[in-house]
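Q: Joint fold for the lines below.
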Amino acid sequence: MDPRRAPRTVIDPKVRQVGFFAPPDRSQSVPLPQSSNSPSSTPLSDLSPSGNSLSPVMIPPPRHLSDLSSLPITAGLPPTRLSPPVHRFSGESVVPIGSYNPSEFASPSVGDLFEDKNARSPGPRRSRGGGGSAKIASSLPAGGFELPPEVKPKSLTTVSVFSNLRPNVTEKLVEKSIESQDGSGANSKQPLKEKTSKAERRALQEAQRAAKAAAKGGNGVANIKTGKSNSVQKKDNASVAAPSEKRLGDHKDKDRKKDVPHPRMQFDDATRVEKAKKRAIVKQTEVRNRVELFRHLPQYEHGTKLPHLEYNFFSLNSNSVHPSVYKVGLRYLAGDISGGNARCIAMLQAFQESIMEYSAPPERALNRDLTAKINSYISYLIECRPLSISMGNAIKFVKTRIANLPLTLSESEAKANLLSEINHFINEKIILADKVIVRHAVTKVRDGDVLLTYGSSSAVEMILLHAHELGKQFRVVIVDSRPKLEGRLLLRRLVAKGVSCTYVHINATSYIMHEVTRVFLGASSVLANGTVYSRVGTACVAMVANACGVPVIVCCEAYKFHERVQLDSICCNELGDPDAISKVHGQKEVNHLKDIADNENLQILNLTYDVTPSDYVSMIITDYGMIPPTSVPVIVRELRKEQIWSG
Amino acid sequence: MWWRSASFILDRNDNLLQDDSVPKPESRLLSPPASYMAETVHNPNPINKISAYYQTRAAHHGVVTSDWLAQAQAAVGRDQPSDSDTSLKSSASVKPFSVIEEFNNWRKQPDLAEAVAAVRALASVIRSSEANTIAELQSELKAASDSLKSWDTTSISLTAGCDLFMRYITRTSAFEYEDFNSAKSRFLERAEKFGEISYKARKIIAMLGQDFIFNGCTILVHGFSRVVLEILKTAAESRKVFRVLCTEGRPDRTGLRFANELAKLDVPVKLLIDSAVAYSMDEVDMVFVGADGVVESGGIINMMGTYQIALVAKTMDKPVYVAAESYKFARLYPLDQKDMVPAVRPIDFGVPIPSKVEVETSARDYTPPQYLTLLFTDLGVLTPSVVSDELIQLYL
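A: Joint structure:
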């Protein structure tokens, strides 16, 4: 048990160090994408034996294949498998590096190489890396682990099997790999190291490795097995192998737990990113120049994921992601569904559909298996777009309900129970809550008011329309901002209903604020210290309103409240497409940043959310009434009592 | 609706009768001059919506003569049936019972707060109810409390008291297994308990609040609050030496009455005109005010002038303490001063005001929570932000 624990405890300090020492990390992950023009990549491809045959990034698919071929497999493999054998021999020698590399190189580079440089990776191949591997994996377990087929749950998710598989491979190949790796791994590593050229960083990294090795030494398995003394590379390799061996025994539970990447995974931690990457269904490409301050957040290139996913839609394996969930993910990605409530409802409905068609495998308890299933859906959805806090709360709710299902229920009863619970949640916590909010908020609209709103919030829109229906005489100022310009849609709908509107951009906020009497804002979430987490720009509007003495009213359903406390918008946020800022929608010729987009000194930051301190908020309107921002913890506490999101 | 109810007559009686009371020696200073009548002051808004709440308070603290009481009672009695017919189901019975009447009976005791009177009136609704089912009883109670609330919409504590009573009485899950009679007695029990709690609240607050008064301190008081008076009384009785500055409290000169009461306790008092608050703030150690209502944000609604005193005190870093019973906690959330049900009160300027001149007749203002230091309530000494906590718990 404890050897399995050991790697974790070792990883933890590393997280912290990686965070501090971002530059060396960068030097390792960045050179690869830069390889098209940077000198550092040349030694890599020249020196490493693997480099001349195949770039390390090509490895993941062949590795499975080589493994598959080495195992007696009875299960039928999908035809896609037949195409790669050509690469297999080259892959063979590279495999060990593959097992080593992922922990060292940030995988985003994988995609980049595929995209930009590697002429040997044709399109279909790329797709196989994602969806294709899913197929292989799902069909594999029967042979792969040599366990009785009936024990093997058919419904094991792609994700879990995938990660099970890898360790198995590495373990087998460790012996063979080490020899070659001593040369190749060290060589390929050397140039990267030199690039950092900072002695103390390097020393620190070495120390960190040593610490890790020491911890690993405790379990001893890997060291003994490899029989090699103290090469740094070996240790690292061992660290991959050691946990894998342990995992073989009780892989199910463990991998289940690890299924869903932490919703706030630190993306500057290369190892974790790598792990998440391996499970990924969506192929993601990291942007070239990541913003240094936001390295802990996923910074992927937009526009590359969607075609890939669409491509895979019809080859979708029924065992991985349910089509309805897949569809919702696609729509998140495409931006069809935006707004906290819409996303949440879409997700819940997709879950409902998948539950409806779900049947538990004979050997497993429904609530366990279903939780795993939902987990895999969620990890897929996270890949499409990071979860909003409201979705996180809804997911907690669903999971709690699944976990609390009485075991005595039959499957159909349990499913019906779940479906109605989810329905109940949608109706009560979202739809009805909105109605209550509208009812409260309308009392704050008087004749002659000038109401200002920012962006496009569904709750605020309902309030404005309802107040208009009640015949109140008021004017609306819609403040909007690039690049999404969501306010224009709101403007269109309000004007169509006959509301008198003024449309300004956020630059004009301070000018227009003097004639405003109330500011109504939507929120993505409200945190326990009263901080409002909302569309970027909200804080600016609220601050100006506060300075002008205009009351700021935030409308937010109580299910979006979160007990976390956040002081700035850096530690948790979502980054949008940087291109959206540099380009002007609809005007292709306007792209002044085009020529310098690849410049290392340019980091474009497209922030999605910001936080508004509670000082600027006069009132929060929720389904529990109108409360001051200081009372958010009360609501969170009461909700927890209600067992909405316990567990 | 309410101008057809008893309150209207009460208001008028009040005005008329206060004139009669001028000769009384004690109220020499306090009673308004003969030109007090609203007619002399030209009210630009001809709507005669004078806040019953403030009229009642004026009656209580000013000059309540026995014949005024008799007259008022008679007036209430006359006006009675029209109210009870509409508001109560029990009016079908032989002896029509009215909450309003009951309420007014209780209300006439000068010591009794309006909300406590309402609670007692509602308790007597239960007592005299002829309902046979719990649902019936509850709807009857609901109707009674609604009629009470609509009787005077300007009184926050009345509304809040009724709401809280309803919550307190009906929020129980133990009714299912009991038969109706025991349930009813349970209701009654709770109602009386609530009434008792409300009645004792003032004592509790006095005990809590007097700890904050230290020897040799100077306290600024605004308005006539019975709770604040109780606190000062308790402090004086425990032989604390302190000084009180009383604002004049225009237009109904509540400060003069308050000074009078304190003088009886041998507490050194100094009277200020309302505009001298900032001038004398530097010698003040703390500000004590009462509240008409404590709102969800933790701010208070109180007699006009509280807000500016709180502002001055905040600027000069003096603590502002509010003494308020928990039945004054209301689920209101004013965003600014105008965001309240207006409570209008006539103002006497001593000279005729030309009709072109507008007069601000609002009787109260809203003090936002950031200007308040602590609230002394029967639930304990609270910071403003806890008010909403308590309210949410009560109404959730």
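Q: Anything notable?
A: The longest helix of chain A spans residues 158-196. The radius of gyration of chain A is 26 Å.
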